[in-house]
Amino acid sequence: MANIKSAKKRILVTQTKTMRNKMIKSRVKTEIKKVLGAIAANDQAAAQAQLLVAVSEIDKAKSKGIFHKNTAARRVARLTKAVNKMAAE
């Protein structure tokens, strides 16, 4: 355990930021699962609606520095491709 005041503060700040990052990543994963669930159920309207929500959450995570911009772009591209593929079929 840290004895120095600044080290104790760093531990608290790190815990706070870790929890925030986990919450946001969890929210992104949940929205992605909802899109994939709509695709699996062949519900095109729900998939399109959920895609917008998922893209919004991914962009928020990117803007907060939780995802790298290329990671966010890759996830959005793959989700969009899956939804568009379902729409084409």
Give structural notes.
Keywords: Ribonucleoprotein, Ribosomal protein, RNA-binding, rRNA-binding. Binds directly to 16S ribosomal RNA. InterPro entries: Ribosomal_bS20, Ribosomal_bS20_sf. Belongs to the bacterial ribosomal protein bS20 family. The chain is elongated and about 65 Å long. It has 89 residues and is an all-alpha fold. The protein has 3 helices and no strands. The mean pLDDT is 96. The protein has a single domain, classed as Up-down Bundle (Methane Monooxygenase Hydroxylase, Chain G, domain 1), CATH 1.20.58.110.
Elements, N to C (H/E): HHH
Question: Radius of gyration over alpha carbons?
Answer: 18 Å
Q: Given the helix and strand composition, which structural class is it?
A: mainly alpha
The biggest beta sheet reads: none
Principal-axes geometry comes out as elongated
Mean model confidence by pLDDT = 96
The assembly state of the depicted protein chains is single chain
CATH class: Mainly Alpha
How many beta-strand segments? 0
Compute the separation of the termini in Å: 59 Å
What's the CATH architecture?
A: Up-down Bundle
CATH superfamily: Ribosomal protein S20
What is the fold named in CATH at topology level?
Answer: Methane Monooxygenase Hydroxylase, Chain G, domain 1
Poorly predicted ranges? none
Our count of helices gives 3
Percentage of β-strand residues: under 5%
| Helix percentage range | over 70%
Family: Belongs to the bacterial ribosomal protein bS20 family.
Pfam family, one: Ribosomal_S20p
Organism: Anaerotalea alkaliphila
GO cellular component, one term: small ribosomal subunit
